[in-house]
Structure formats: structure tokens, C-alpha cells
């Protein structure tokens, strides 16, 4: 009994330490965003600002077009997430249900593609987009985000499709439903948590992405939020810490809000009531 109690205490202590580790950057960012320049330059920093101020937020919006950049990021992230899910869902269904040499080869490509560094693919992507006249456009950036997110999205959805009982599809086939009807009416509703999780992954990845946006977007009016955040760093590498913290904190909110809205859908039972025992 004492051994089990000690193990349980150790588990909770490890979980608490992990939560503190995850929350520390966000809490410090929030604290910095509300500090005055005097407190930011203090040799003895504190967690809670002595004199909280909104001046950093006002200065951030005055210095950089955060709203426009945020809208660009939102359009790119939503577009990439939607297209990636629409493409990955039928592809994952075929890969999960048809165990052929081609599906195994595609699975291997999915795993290998995740090891490619950004630098390795940026030049070919740049040349392709140049030929398509999509350089310096959000459409071209969305295309890149879809290509980059699709392998992992496909890998995620294959696991969800394989968890769907085949008996449900066989029953639909007995009732006269074809493959497409079965996918749309039977399998897709049961895949809702997986589709939401995959879309969330694609959205967060595109929202936080910096390197592709920096290389492909040159017009200031089209730049995304991660790129605009670098403008708070001067030519000599000195950061305007207060406005930068305020802008960075605002940039993290959409991802947190999206996850908070859909987390119950993700963690909910996937097949509750689908199969009777």
C-alpha cells in the first residue's frame, strides 16, 4: 500500500513539474507584457508587475500592423487546415482499408518526409512557386503549408480510420451503400475527433510557421504575424522587449482559444454507441 501511495505521489509530482515547465514561458511572457520599461530594466525581476501597464500593447499596435498580419496568418492557417483535412481524409481511408504495396510505400514516404529540414526543400519550392507565379502571395503560402502538413495529417488519420470497426462498413455495404457513401455517411462521422485533431495540428503548424513565410512573402502588407514579430528586434539585435512580449502574447491566444474550443471534441469517446455489445 505504501509503495502504491509513493508511486502515485511521484506521478502527480512529475505531472505538476511538467505543467510548470509548459506554463513557465507563457506566464513569464504575460508578466513581461504588463511591465513598465523601468521594471524591464531592473536587475531584480519579479513575477508580478509592481505597476501593471497597457503601454506595451498600445506601442505594439502603433509600431506594427498586428491586425493585418494576424488576418493574413488566420487566412493562411485556416486555408491550409481545411485543404489538408479534405485531401488527407479520403487518402487515409484508402491507405487504411487497402493494404497494398503502394499504400506501404506511401506510408514509408510519410515517415521519411518528416525528416526533411526546411532548408532542403525551400529552393525547389521557391522555383515551383515562381513558375506558377505564386511567389509573394498567400495562395502560394497556403499551398506550401498544405504540402508540409499533409504527410503528418495523413499519418494521423490512417490510425483513426483503422480504429473504425470494419463491421460498420460491411453493414453499410449490405444495405447497398457504395464506398463513397460509406465514407461520407458512416466512417466520416466516427472520424470527427480525428479530423478535428488533424485540422487543429495543421492550423497551429501554419499559424506558428516562420521560415516559409519569411522567404516567400516580400510585400509588407502580406506578411504573417510570426514575420512581423521580428520587426520588434532592431538592426543591432536589441529587442524592444515590452512591445515584443505584448505582441507575442497576443499571437499565442488564437492557438490557445482554438484548442480550448475543440479539446472536448478531441478527447470525447470516438465510437460511443456506434457498436452494441
From TrEMBL:
It is found in: Cell membrane. It holds the Pfam family BPD_transp_1. It is a multi-pass membrane protein. Keywords: Cell membrane, Membrane, Transmembrane, Transmembrane helix, Transport. InterPro entries: BP-dep_ABC_trans_perm, MetI-like, MetI-like_sf. Its main location: membrane. The keyword Transport applies. PANTHER family: INNER MEMBRANE ABC TRANSPORTER PERMEASE PROTEIN YCJP, MALTOSE TRANSPORT SYSTEM PERMEASE-RELATED. This is Carbohydrate ABC transporter permease.
Amino acid at each position: 500500500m505504501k509503495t502504491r501511495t509513493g508511486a502515485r505521489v511521484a506521478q502527480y509530482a512529475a505531472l505538476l513539474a511538467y505543467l510548470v515547465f509548459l506554463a513557465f514561458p507563457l506566464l513569464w511572457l504575460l508578466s513581461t507584457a504588463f511591465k513598465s520599461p523601468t521594471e524591464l530594466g531592473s536587475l531584480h525581476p519579479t513575477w508580478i508587475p509592481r505597476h501593471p501597464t497597457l503601454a506595451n500593447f498600445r506601442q505594439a499596435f502603433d509600431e506594427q500592423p498586428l491586425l493585418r498580419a494576424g488576418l493574413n496568418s488566420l487566412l493562411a492557417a485556416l486555408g491550409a487546415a481545411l485543404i489538408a483535412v479534405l485531401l488527407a481524409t479520403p487518402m487515409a481511408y484508402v491507405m487504411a482499408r487497402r493494404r497494398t504495396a503502394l499504400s506501404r510505400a506511401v506510408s514509408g514516404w510519410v515517415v521519411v518526409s518528416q525528416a526533411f529540414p526546411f532548408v532542403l526543400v525551400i529552393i525547389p519550392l521557391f522555383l515551383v512557386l515562381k513558375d506558377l507565379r505564386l511567389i509573394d502571395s498567400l495562395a502560394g503560402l497556403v499551398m506550401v503549408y498544405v504540402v508540409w502538413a499533409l504527410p503528418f495529417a495523413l499519418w494521423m488519420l490512417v490510425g483513426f480510420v483503422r480504429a473504425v470497426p470494419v463491421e460498420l462498413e460491411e453493414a453499410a455495404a449490405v444495405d447497398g451503400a457504395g464506398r463513397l457513401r460509406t465514407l461520407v455517411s458512416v466512417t466520416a462521422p466516427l472520424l470527427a475527433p480525428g479530423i478535428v485533431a488533424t485540422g487543429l495540428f495543421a492550423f497551429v503548424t501554419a499559424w506558428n510557421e516562420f521560415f516559409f513565410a519569411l522567404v516567400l512573402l516580400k510585400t509588407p502588407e502580406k506578411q504573417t504575424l510570426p514575420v512581423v514579430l521580428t520587426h520588434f528586434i532592431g538592426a543591432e539585435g536589441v529587442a524592444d522587449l515590452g512591445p515584443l512580449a505584448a505582441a507575442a502574447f497576443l499571437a499565442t491566444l488564437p492557438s490557445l482559444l482554438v484548442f480550448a474550443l475543440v479539446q472536448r471534441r478531441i478527447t470525447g469517446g470516438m465510437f460511443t454507441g456506434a457498436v452494441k455489445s
